[in-house]
Design brief:
It is a single chain. The protein is mainly α. Helix content is about 80%, strand content about 0%. The radius of gyration is 27 Å and the shape is elongated. The two termini are about 15 Å apart.
């Protein structure tokens, strides 16, 4: 495409669109003309980007198209209705839609943690490489560090710290998935290694029941959130390899927006698990009561995903923005 000829042929249309956008009021005919020129200019922008990219011209037309789109579609204020829609449709739909990634991730990760725990618990030489015998006894004895960890700080500050750390890890899994998922695997392994070490050391001291009684109340929901984040991050990485029928750019944009939105939802889930870890886990409640609370929270989340999420997906929700809220997709030349 000869860029100079193209500019000469369409400059008048762009100038006319700019003039219409500067007016405070438009007649009916002018409004129709603005919409037509907006669509044409969006097409021109797409053609220039694909055939003869010019930074200065592309910048000008991008700004013009953005102004026109804002005028045509109008501005929109976020409301409580948006928050309700996100919590009842967008977030559960995004989690449900990625279940084929995070459920296998959860199963494999749990198996890895159990295998590490068995290996550490049955091999004294492995335990000795972790810490000295005296230190291991201090960790695993009744009233030792594994038990006092959850009550080492005031419940409120401890819950806030746990929530911040876990939300950070989940966000990293979601965001770093774009690097083909490799950083996600490392983050996931580190979490499973920490869990496996605790299981192995406490089982070697015949106190595995105590360890599980401390971990399960908050760990079920917390680990599920981590698995969802990791599975979604891996799915995002796979999108780069196989975008399907979409262009790689479109696929990455759609899945990336859903992943960022999911980070917000998972932060709320981790807030609940953090509250359980700060207030329920170190409490004086019987072990069965604490575990029941953890199981109840986990089942509530799964029901939330598999009931509301499945319903939203059947209605066409993907966890991405609504069509009206996405950037306009300009047609391209065949």
């Amino acid at each position: 495409m000869d860029l100079d000829v193209f500019v000469c042929a369409h400059r008048a249309e762009w100038d006319r669109l700019d003039a219409l956008l500067r007016r405070r009021r438009l007649t009916g005919g002018e409004a129709d003309e603005l919409v037509t020129l907006y669509q044409r200019t969006a097409t021109h922008l797409s053609l220039i980007r694909s055939s003869a990219p010019d930074p200065q011209l592309t910048g000008r037309l991008s700004h013009l198209v953005a102004r026109a789109r804002s005028t045509v579609t109008g501005t929109r204020q976020a409301s409580w209705r948006d928050a309700t829609r996100f919590l009842t449709r967008g977030f559960p739909a995004a989690v449900y839609r990625t279940r084929h990634w995070w459920v296998p991730t959860a199963l494999v990760s749990t198996a890895v943690a159990a295998l590490l725990g068995w290996w550490i618990g049955t091999h004294p030489e492995v335990r000795s490489s972790i810490a000295a015998p005296a230190e291991l006894r201090e960790l695993t004895r009744p009233g030792g560090q594994y038990e006092t960890y959850y009550s080492s700080h005031p419940a409120t500050s401890f819950a806030a710290q746990v929530w911040t750390n876990n939300a950070q890890a989940a966000a990293m899994c979601l965001v770093l998935g774009v690097f083909l998922g490799l950083p996600v695997l490392w983050i996931l392994f580190q979490n499973m290694l920490n869990l496996g070490v605790g299981m192995g050391l406490m089982s070697s001291a015949d106190r595995l029941d105590t360890f599980l009684g401390l971990v399960l109340p908050h760990g079920l929901l917390e680990l599920t959130a981590v698995f969802v984040a990791a599975g979604t991050g891996l799915r995002l990485g796979w999108t780069l390899i196989d975008p399907g029928p979409r262009t790689r750019r479109t696929a990455l944009a759609e899945e990336g927006r859903a992943a960022v939105a999911m980070a917000i939802g998972l932060a709320l889930v981790l807030l609940v698990s953090g509250a359980i870890e700060g207030f329920v886990t170190p409490s004086g409640l019987p072990t069965w009561t604490r575990i029941t609370i953890g199981i109840t929270a986990e089942l509530a989340f799964l029901a939330y995903v598999y009931v509301l999420g499945a319903r939203a997906v059947r209605a066409g929700d993907t966890g991405d923005l609504d069509d009206a809220e996405r950037s306009a997709t300009a047609p391209t030349a065949a």
